[in-house]
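Colleagues,

For the teaching module next term, I've prepared a clean inverse folding example: a structure given as tokens, and then the sequence designed for it. I'd like students to try predicting residues themselves before seeing the answer, so please don't circulate the second half yet.
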């Protein structure tokens, strides 16, 4: 594991630019900022709050299971979290002030729904001190991060009684979801929202330094077309300046699936408000099982 102070300057620039852009379009109805705030909000909406130890990480895991039977567990993966304060200063705590993926999970009416925070999010001060900032900057999509989520999915699946997965990732969580879908045979559907799926394309577009140590879903080798293609739908806002549509469309060109530009949306605006309609369409459109 990296030392807590390990954060190369060039990689920091990439992380900072992304998070500062996020801060610029954050909405005022934030309900996160701490584990307690997110937990209280989720519990009021029927989620059981827990944590999962996966690899070197402690991941926040909220689960809501209805009484009706279902063979599929829908897992939502959070975005990159709190904004950077300057191009060289990552936040001391990456816990999101606006947990968009949690809002999407709460809006989903599927029988079995789970939410996973990202590494180093939702930790107390002592645990956070031992979590290197590299895991919310240049190594946010590192192999060990993907392996930890893979382990977490297996644990959640076993605990839910389901046999299949749908993965939904918001922003950077969509990158994690895509990498997982490229590795597992039990993912029946991948849905991403405003996700920089072609990292090299995204870095080039913004004139940033690469995220050294992170995997790029557009070029990552453990890929089987049969695991994605028609099973994958990638939403992106027509007005998104953080992850412009061409980044998502480049990924689809390389890996298959389908991208959908949503008029009037940017990186955060309207996704949670309209999610029941969008996710229903994603699950029922022709060509997506």
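(Answer key — instructors only)
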């Amino acid at each position: 594991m990296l030392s807590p102070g390990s954060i190369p300057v060039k990689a920091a620039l990439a992380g900072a630019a992304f998070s500062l852009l996020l801060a610029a379009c954050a909405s005022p109805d934030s309900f996160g900022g701490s584990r307690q705030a997110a937990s209280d909000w989720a519990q009021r909406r029927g989620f059981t709050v827990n944590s999962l130890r996966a690899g070197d990480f402690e991941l926040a895991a909220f689960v809501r299971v209805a009484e009706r039977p279902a063979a599929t567990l829908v897992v939502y993966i959070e975005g990159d979290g709190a904004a950077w304060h300057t191009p060289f200063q990552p936040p001391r705590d990456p816990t999101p002030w606006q947990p968009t993926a949690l809002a999407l999970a709460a809006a989903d009416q599927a029988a079995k729904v789970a939410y996973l925070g990202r590494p180093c999010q939702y930790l107390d001060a002592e645990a956070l001190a031992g979590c290197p900032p590299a895991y919310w900057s240049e190594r946010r999509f590192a192999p060990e991060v993907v392996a930890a989520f893979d382990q977490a999915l297996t644990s959640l699946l076993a605990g839910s009684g389901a046999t299949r997965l749908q993965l939904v990732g918001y922003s950077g969580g969509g990158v994690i979801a895509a990498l997982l879908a490229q590795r597992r045979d039990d993912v029946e559907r991948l849905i991403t929202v405003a996700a920089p799926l072609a990292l090299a394309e995204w870095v080039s577009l913004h004139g940033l330094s690469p995220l050294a140590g992170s995997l790029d879903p557009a070029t990552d080798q453990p890929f089987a077309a049969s695991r994605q293609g028609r099973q994958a739908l990638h939403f992106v806002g027509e007005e998104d300046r953080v992850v412009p549509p061409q980044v998502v469309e480049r990924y689809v060109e390389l890996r298959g699936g389908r991208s959908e530009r949503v008029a009037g949306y940017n990186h955060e605006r309207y996704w949670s408000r309209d999610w029941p309609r969008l996710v229903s369409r994603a699950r029922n459109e022709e060509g997506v099982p």
